[in-house]
Amino acid sequence: MSAAKLSLGTIIHTVIGIGLMFLGHVLPCPSLTVPVNDALVAAGFPVVDGNAVITITRMGMVNAMIFLGVVYLWTFVDTLWPCFLGVLMLAFSGFTPAPKVLSSFLGNPMVVMIFFTLCFATALIKSNVSSWLAQWILRRDFIIGRPWTFTAVILIASYFLAFFEQTSICFLIWPVLYSIFDQVGFKRGDKYVSIMLVLIIIMALLSFASDPFKTGAFLLLGNVWGLAASNPGMNVPALPAASYFCFALVVSLVSIALLMAAMRFVFRVDVSPLMKLDPEVLRKEPLPPMTGYQIGVLVAFAIFACWILLPGIIGKDNVIGAFLGRNSLLAPLVALFLVGFVHLRGKPIADISETAAVYPWRIFLLIAVAMLLGDAMTGKGTNVTVYMEYMLRGALAGFGYVPLCIAVILLGISCTNFCNSVVLGLVLTPVLLAMCNAFGMNAGPLMACFIYAVLIAACTPAASPFAAMLFGNTRWLSPKEIVTYSVSSSLIIAGVVIVVGIPLAMLIF
């Protein structure tokens, strides 16, 4: 068998991405002239004609272009080898000694927590808990003969089941829908088929944006918590996991209701074929009882979730809340210990050595490198954060709090479709926090809305792994259908975040 050849487009994108990583050494360092204030003078920025001159340093340019080059390669070429190249380029840049680069890369406490969290997530996947729950839900009699009830159950079940593992939910629900489409006579191109397949991915994204336990929102919330711990003078909002989860849950459920309303009253989807649905199609395979191993994994997940959520529910002014909050980084280790220590019939509930084949190395490395390069780009001595802060302050000057939140939501949900959503969130978080501090505004509601909005990425293949799976389903979907329904869904969700999310966040945070 002949080896597959690289396409010309891949080669061109590779050359462009690597070239971008070297441009920081030769590009001029951009400057910004702003009214002088005590903070800028104290930071050492020069004053010319009564104005402070903010200039990104040469090291800031080098680090920024390394980061931009890696993001470009992630978007157009691959998500694995650019991670290693980015670490090497940073080590060779002279920003900090190589041992310190490696220590920051894999020694970051948040990265270590993410590593063990993903280990536990693979145990959840291996247990097939979500598959068992999906089959159980779809066998309920009350959905038969009620097309819109059936649709609502499919969407809501997809949203909640995705908390176990977002990226696999389409492989769990799509095959069920395919068999239903064939049985009732739906075919490729029918509105119900196209919209439902797109909405399953949207449900995964809503779950991704709501999840304070493992991925998605957890990664960006963890970044905020890390900034709060390392920058005590920055006035970083608390954003407790429990409070954020309540906020995201309400926004998601309202979004699901409006997405269904759009199906019914805007797109006028014909659901009459579902009246012919034979319940035996959903019950063709007997459903065995949940195994002890699956129950054990569910119990461990419940303990893990409670550990993350309880400090925000009961507060940290008591012994339990203070202990859990102080040791939140250890929650995934506790879950892994339990599933490895407790044995049933001579076997551990979950053996993580058996899950190595499904460990999401690409996701882990992408997050670890994004945090490393993001910190290097916006770190002390680069002036990148200050430059971006004052650039945004100039563009958004005069905005009230609500218009500012709306602008940030639209910025997040638009830009996220052209680069990795988590990476964009990690980079913009310190900039938005600095801007809120400068304006004297409470950053909590704005950051909650931004974190949710920036994770809704479905309109281009580069937006997220979920979007890539959507655009890869050429058997059932055309690119036009994907763009039409993903863009309309994103607009509906953005509207919900603005109309419902902003006042709710202001009430909670």
UniProtKB/TrEMBL annotation:
GO terms for molecular function: transmembrane transporter activity. Its main location: membrane. Keywords: Membrane, Transmembrane, Transmembrane helix. It is found in: Membrane. The chain crosses the membrane at residues 7-27, 39-57, 64-92, 112-138, 150-180, 192-209, 216-235, 241-267, 293-314, 320-344, 356-374, 394-415, 422-444, 450-471, 483-508. It is a multi-pass membrane protein. One of its GO terms (cellular component) is plasma membrane. PANTHER family: MG(2+)_CITRATE COMPLEX SECONDARY TRANSPORTER, SOLUTE CARRIER FAMILY 13 MEMBER. This is SLC13 family permease. It comes from Mailhella massiliensis.
